[in-house]
Amino acid sequence: MHNIKPKITLVGAGPGDPDLLTLKAVKALAEANVVLYDALASEEILDYAPKNAIRIFVGKRIGNHAYTQDQINQLIVDNALTYGNVVRLKGGDPFIFGRGGEEIDFAESFGIETIVVPGISSVVAVPASQGISITKRGVSESFWAITGTTSDRKLSSDVALAAQSSATVVILMGMHKLPQIIDLFQKEDKGNLPVAIIQNGTTSEEKVGVGTVDSILEVVKQKELVSPAIIVLGEVVRESNKLKGFYEEFLSKEIAR
């Protein structure tokens, strides 16, 4: 046990579909002595770790925190010093609303070697799974990716700014704040702006609701959409081949009125 070389690899597990794991992530998991993992959309990703690797669940869900972030930071370091190669597995990409930067900073303060394996972020992958291209020539030249809930549990002030722009707006962790988000877009006179809400995107449990800023709250109620879900607001939603039919029908009904 004297030759243990501590190493921490921060790995993005992707948006949920286990096939959207990168080859680099699979290789990193195969070499793990310990895997500390979040509440993953697909637990079968853990099968890529060796059978004898220690698996520790450190995930957080709203209102149910197995560990605080400080405890997770300490666990990562303690396990690296004790067992060697730790893989810290996080959903999506570890540096997009994943607090991966904090974990890396903490590990490096102990002089431990760290590696980051980026993951496919749900910001782009989940809309793409519904045929929504979040940038599209002539329709949207940029996008905002915003967390719906900041560290002090408030709605990000960036949402109000995003509502003023012509960009596609992708909001993660925003379902609990959906009425506030909709209100901000209505204040900008964007009641007819297309909206898609995609729950458990890229997984077999995927559920989708589409509408406009004015109608989406009713759609959410009817379809019983809940977290984890991604909210996409923008003209690009209407451009999706998968969703086009809905908007054509919707517009013909509006004109008929």
Give the percentage of residues in beta strands. 15-25%
Which range best describes the helical content: under 10%, 10-25%, 25-40%, 40-55%, 55-70% or over 70%?
25-40%
The overall strand count is 12
Structural class by secondary-structure content: alpha/beta
Mean pLDDT: 93
Which key features would you list for this structure?
257 residues, transferase, 4pyrrol_Methylase_sf, alpha/beta, five-stranded mixed sheet, methyltransferase, five-stranded parallel sheet, CobA/CysG_C, 22% strand, 9 helices, elongated, porphyrin biosynthesis
Tell me what the structure shows.
α2 (69-83) crosses α3 (100-108). This protein is 32% helix and 22% strand. The strands form 3 sheets. It has a 5-stranded parallel sheet, with helices on both faces. It has a 5-stranded mixed sheet with strand order 8-9-12-10-11, sandwiched between helices. The protein has a two-stranded antiparallel sheet with strand order 4-5. With 257 residues, the chain is α/β, with parallel strands linked by helices. α5 (158-164) links the parallel β8 and β9. It is an enzyme of class 2 (transferase). Keywords: Methyltransferase, Porphyrin biosynthesis, S-adenosyl-L-methionine, Transferase. This is uroporphyrinogen-III C-methyltransferase.
What topology emerges from the helices and strands here?
Elements: E1 7-12, H1 23-30, E2 34-37, E3 54-57, E4 60-61, E5 64-65, H2 69-83, E6 85-90, H3 100-108, E7 113-117, H4 122-129, E8 143-147, H5 158-164, E9 168-172, H6 178-187, E10 194-199, E11 207-212, H7 216-223, E12 229-233, H8 236-239, H9 244-256
Parallel strand pairs: 1-6, 1-7, 2-3, 2-6, 8-9
Antiparallel strand pairs: 4-5, 9-12, 10-11, 10-12
Helix pairs in contact: 2-3
GO molecular function, one term: uroporphyrin-III C-methyltransferase activity
Keywords: Methyltransferase, Porphyrin biosynthesis, S-adenosyl-L-methionine, Transferase
Pathway: Porphyrin-containing compound metabolism; siroheme biosynthesis; precorrin-2 from uroporphyrinogen III: step 1/1
